[in-house]
Design a protein that fits this description.
The complex is a heterodimer of chains A (520) and B (325). By secondary structure, chain A is mainly alpha-helical. Chain A has helices at residues 2-13, 15-39, 47-80, 86-93, 101-112, 117-124, 135-159, 163-171, 176-204, 208-214, 222-231, 236-260, 282-314, 319-350, 357-365, 368-379, 389-426, 431-442, 444-460, 465-468, 476-485, 489-515. Chain A has one domain (2-41, 49-515): Orthogonal Bundle (MetI-like fold). Helices cover 77% and strands 0% of the residues of chain A. Helices cover 41% and strands 20% of the residues of chain B. In chain B, strands 1, 2, 3, 4, 5, 6, 7, 8, 9, 10, 11 and 12 form a 12-stranded mixed β-sheet that branches. The N and C termini of chain B lie far apart (60 Å). Classes of the chains: A mainly alpha (520), B alpha/beta (325). The interface between A and B is large, with 58 and 60 residues.
């Protein structure tokens, strides 16, 4: 009897988590089923589709591996060093992640393109030019987008190691290598697979970056194959099957990673400022400085190009762009609210059922195109889908940001519950009071980061515009696309700069909100 | 009343519906954007029809047709505007369109007799480059040159498909060979026109696949005469954009009135400097100044609508095979 009552109480205690999981699954799976039902069943992908699948998995794997491997030294250097402008650098480094693809690609090309800075330098030095188009270009762009994200996730891991541990390590005379083995490596084992997993998932549905920088049809991804099935052959059955394969891949990868990852932690600290006695030698200082400098250059040069290209246009942006900026801001805030609420509920559940995190990944695993089509089919019999454009786009954006919010929240929440759960239990602190007095205050830093990430991500996302474009309430990314489509490249670049500034401001506001008086 | 019907009625109920008739026109997104022809055309038509013209934008021409197929006969659209010659066969097959009653002499380089679809503008595809640079005059010369070109993917872009059909129509069985020659000229392939044109303007390539009318934008809107379209001796492939009335429309008279308006000055005047295409019925005011400087291809190429689909599939297979190597 007693043994049985435990799981029951657990289940009832996590109703919000299960509800969130159900909601997310339904929002992804129902549209997929609707598409299948409309198509009268699935149809077999052709040989070109399998080739696309192979390329997709290859580029996503390479992108994830390089992003996390390069992020480790960067995060370590940032964790060990304090310097003026460090906070600003960390915020600004998050920018590539939130830019609309085409704006970011044009920024990258200003640096690595045919007439970009790198090639001008190479020509000046009498060296052969660098050709960005190809698989390496795709990976380079994905690393540019995701390196900052991985860096932030690892940085969070480093911040999770209590200051007392480093103090103890110093008093025991640990060398930097000892510190790495005893403190940093266990932390990385916890955070690295998860970071790689979300980056793999997001790169899997890459479409415009892969094609534009891939240099031709060799770089066809599954998402393009899905689009082609809809546009060219109107074979919705094939589109749905391809979407399911993509989803299965992400789920498989997620389950594998969640099995691999460990649940170790460092125990509670006293929230003292961290001092790194182990890293005070000159060679290490030089190394860290070089790493930070290189990473900053890699991220900031293309961003600088986005700013530079946007400056002439940003001064006299038409009123429609400002209106779109307002729509996008409101939408980003709505998405943030939804995503953070879902992520909090799912994170609580994931402490007991780790695999539930895979549900959070469904949002980016599913092809946005198929989800959009399915939602259209579901809404259309009852109402004009355009009326629901705002709600649908906000929800789709929230779901796309959910995996990142989860990745940020789960480790933090795990520590809070482990360290303070027993105390809260003994005080009878449960339900909303527990959330209000324990979880939210202790989780402020990751919550702020997660909210900032979601808000910024939703600002830059195009969502499901093909079928849900509301002409009266166009978002800023859609307006940028329209400006480009009407030859107005300079105004589009200006609007891109506006988007960059707005996204960063939102990100900074949330992130700082979470960090205030925590760093003291 | 079934609950969902009730819900639908409640959601659709709007005071405007009861008083003035509403004509719903589906079109591609860039048509309704603030920089496209949509706003001016809406104002002009509403001034004479005593109705509300409701433009609904959805992606591009192919996405438009996709949406229509999802909705079927329940589509609220009266008119679909913005399909092009490559999509007409598929659009006809849906059986959703009905014949229009307009008889007009259109200013098109080819004869137009389709009973279902009426053109509203047209243009030629062409490579666009910078004035004064090296300019090949046909595909073989282009393939032999060292010039870098940006093109669009035919699977996701209309101009991309246009180039595919252009080369296939001219070279037939030799098309694969032309693509083999062009392979080392192709800097990259983009999903859409905007990305390709943006890349070209940033200096990533010497030439971009666009329209013969593209230089007119730079000339008229930016006072910049540095961009030119390259005349090719093989002739140039055409794009004709058309509109059709849906058989399920509840307002066939109003729809017909719109189709007549579509080939009148109120509509056609707006086209050259918003859609940057040629009007199908020359407005009284003629073409804007910059247009006289544009190249005038001697040969207009267009695959017959009935054969377009088969040709397209063949050409796409070839294209994928050659460029995937």
């Amino acid at each position: 009897m007693a043994a049985r009552s435990v799981p029951l109480s657990r289940l009832s205690g996590h109703w919000s988590g299960w509800a969130a999981a159900l909601l997310v699954s339904a929002f992804v799976l129902l549209p997929l089923l609707a598409v299948l039902w409309f198509a009268g069943g699935g149809s077999r992908p052709g040989p070109a589709d399998w080739a696309a699948l192979r390329f997709t998995v290859l580029q996503a794997t390479l992108s994830a591996v390089f992003s996390v491997l390069l992020a480790v030294p960067v995060a370590r250097a940032l964790a060990r060093r304090r310097f003026i402008g460090r906070g600003v650098l960390i915020t600004v480094m998050g920018a590539p992640f939130i830019l609309p693809v085409i704006v970011a690609v044009l920024g990258l090309l200003a640096v690595f393109g045919r007439s970009g800075i790198v090639n001008q330098a190479l020509v000046w030095a009498g060296l052969p030019p660098f050709q960005i188009y190809g698989l390496h270009g795709v990976v380079l762009a994905h690393v540019f987008f995701n390196l900052p994200l991985a860096t932030r996730l690892f940085l969070q891991g480093w911040q999770g190691i209590p200051a007392e541990r480093f103090r103890l390590a110093a008093s025991l005379g640990f060398t930097p290598l000892d510190v790495f083995r005893q403190l940093e490596l266990p932390m990385l084992r916890n955070t690295l697979p998860g970071a790689a997993m979300v980056i793999f998932a997001i790169c899997l549905s890459s479409f415009a970056v892969a094609l534009t920088l891939g240099g031709g049809p060799r770089a066809t991804t599954v998402e393009l194959a899905i689009y082609q099935a809809f546009r060219f052959d109107f074979d919705l059955g094939r589109a749905a099957v391809l979407a399911m394969i993509q989803m299965a891949l992400v789920t498989l990868a997620a389950l594998l990673v969640l099995r691999l990852g460990r649940m170790e932690s460092f125990g509670r600290g006293m929230d003292r400022p961290v001092r790194r006695w182990d890293a005070e030698s000159w060679p290490l200082r030089c190394l860290d400085t070089a790493v930070i400098f290189a990473a900053a250059l890699f991220i900031l040069l293309p961003l600088g190009a986005v700013v530079w290209r946007g400056l002439p246009g940003v001064m006299d942006l038409p009123v429609q762009v400002w209106r779109a900026a307002w729509v996008s801001t409101v939408m980003a805030l709505a998405s943030t609210l939804v995503a953070v609420a879902l992520a909090l509920a799912l994170a609580h559940l994931a402490l007991h059922h780790r695999r539930i995190e895979a549900v959070g990944l469904l949002g980016i695993a599913a092809s946005p195109f198929v989800i959009g089509t399915g939602l259209f089919l579901l809404i259309n019999p009852f109402s004009d889908p355009v009326r629901w454009a705002f709600v649908v786009t906000a929800l789709v954006n929230a779901l796309a940001a959910l995996p990142f919010a989860l990745r940020v929240l789960i480790p933090g929440l795990r520590d809070v519950i482990r360290d303070f759960g027993p105390l809260a239990d003994s005080l009878g602190l449960t339900g909303f009071a527990r959330l209000r007095w324990l979880v939210l205050p202790r989780l402020r830093r990751p919550l702020g980061f997660a909210a900032g990430l979601t808000a910024a991500l939703s600002m830059g996302d195009l969502g499901v515009i093909a079928l849900f474009a509301d002409p009266e309430r166009a978002t800023l990314p859609l307006q940028i696309l329209r400006l480009m489509g009407a030859y107005r490249m300079e105004t589009a670049a200006g609007a891109g700069l506006l988007l960059l500034m707005l996204s960063l401001s939102l990100f900074w506001l949330f992130d700082q909100g979470g960090r205030r008086d925590v760093d003291a | 009343m079934k609950p969902h019907v009730l819900l639908a009625t409640l959601l659709m109920a709007s005071p405007a519906l009861a008083q003035t008739p509403v004509l719903t026109v589906y079109t591609y997104d860039s048509f309704v954007s603030d920089w496209g022809p949509g706003p001016a055309i809406k104002e002009a038509f509403e001034a004479e029809c005593g109705c509300t013209l409701n433009f609904v934008g959805a992606g591009d021409g192919a996405a438009l047709l996709g949406r229509l197929r999802l909705e079927g006969t329940r589509s609220p659209a009266d008119i679909v505007l913005g399909l092009d010659t490559g999509l007409i066969a598929a659009a006809r097959e849906t059986g959703l369109f009905m014949a229009h009653t307009i008889e007009a002499d259109l200013d098109l380089p080819v004869e137009w007799t389709d009973p279902l679809f009426l053109p509203f503008d047209w243009g030629y595809f062409a490579f666009v480059g910078n004035r004064g640079a090296e300019h090949p005059t046909n595909f073989r010369e282009l393939a032999a040159s060292d010039l870098g070109i940006v093109i669009q993917d035919p699977r996701s872009s209309t101009p991309g498909l246009g180039l595919l059909m252009w080369i296939k129509s001219v070279y037939g069985d030799e098309a694969a060979g032309i693509w083999e020659g062009l392979a080392d000229n192709i800097v990259t392939v983009t999903p859409g026109w905007s990305e390709a044109y943006g890349l070209f303007l940033e200096g990533e390539a010497d030439l971009v696949l666009s329209y013969t009318t593209s230089p007119a934008y730079h000339l008229i809107a930016e006072d910049d005469d540095s961009k030119v379209a390259l005349p090719f001796t093989e002739g140039h492939y055409m794009q004709i954009e058309v509109a059709g009335i849906l058989a399920a429309s509840e307002q066939p008279e109003l729809a017909d009135q719109f189709m007549r308006f579509m080939i009148s000055d109120g509509f056609q005047n707006v086209i050259p400097t918003t859609n940057w295409m040629y009007p199908v019925a020359m407005p009284e005011a003629g073409l804007p100044d910059g247009f006289s400087t544009l190249i005038q291809p001697e040969t207009a190429i267009l695959a017959p609508i009935e054969q377009a689909d088969a040709l397209r599939d063949l050409a796409l297979d070839e294209w994928l095979r050659v460029l995937s190597r």
